[in-house]
Amino acid sequence: MAFNGTWKVDRSENYDKFMEQMGINLVKRKLAAHDNLKITLEQDGDKFHVKEVSTFRTLELAFTLGVTFEYSLADGTELSGSWVMEGDALKGSFVRKDNGKTLTTVRNIVGDELVQSYSYEGVEAKRIFKRA
């Protein structure tokens, strides 16, 4: 259960370009770059409880590995998809409801950090979190 704990965003790589590719406008991208995101992950077998707290919203959700669920991003983009475990990585594949394009997210523990990688339409980005 290496993912368990509260993680605070420390830094990002190529995140603005990724958000631009997602169609997020400049003002929202600038705000998102300083969202002070904190993620609390609790894993119990194949079930996860996630709490996301940022400057803009607080969201709680629960999901089961391999089971499709609905999710919306902070900018209101609606998605449908699921998470699976592949080795030590938590991999999510989500389809946008507005255009049918796929957003892929991978969470890995690297050393003492949670690395969350994103891929959308050929643009990749990372957000790196440290334990809060």
Describe, in short, the structure shown.
The protein is mostly beta strands and 132 residues long. Helices cover 11% and strands 58% of the residues. The longest helix is centred in the first third of the chain and has 7 residues, at 15-21.
Any key phrases for this structure?
58% strand; 132 residues; lipid binding; Calycin; 10-stranded antiparallel β-sheet; single chain
Q: Which CATH class applies here?
A: Mainly Beta
Biggest β-sheet strands, sense, barrel: 10 strands, antiparallel
Find the CATH superfamily.
Calycin beta-barrel core domain
The CATH architecture would be Beta Barrel
CATH topology term: Lipocalin
How many distinct helices?
A: 2
Number of domains: 1
Shape: globular
Strand tally is 10
Distance between the termini: 17 Å
The proportion of residues in beta strands is over 45%
- Report the C-alpha radius of gyration, rounded: 14 Å
Mean pLDDT: 95
Low-confidence stretches: none
**SSE pattern, N- to C-terminal:** EHHEEEEEEEEE
> If strands are numbered along the chain, what order do they take across the biggest sheet?
4-3-2-1-10-9-8-7-6-5
Structural class: mainly beta
Helix content: 10-25%
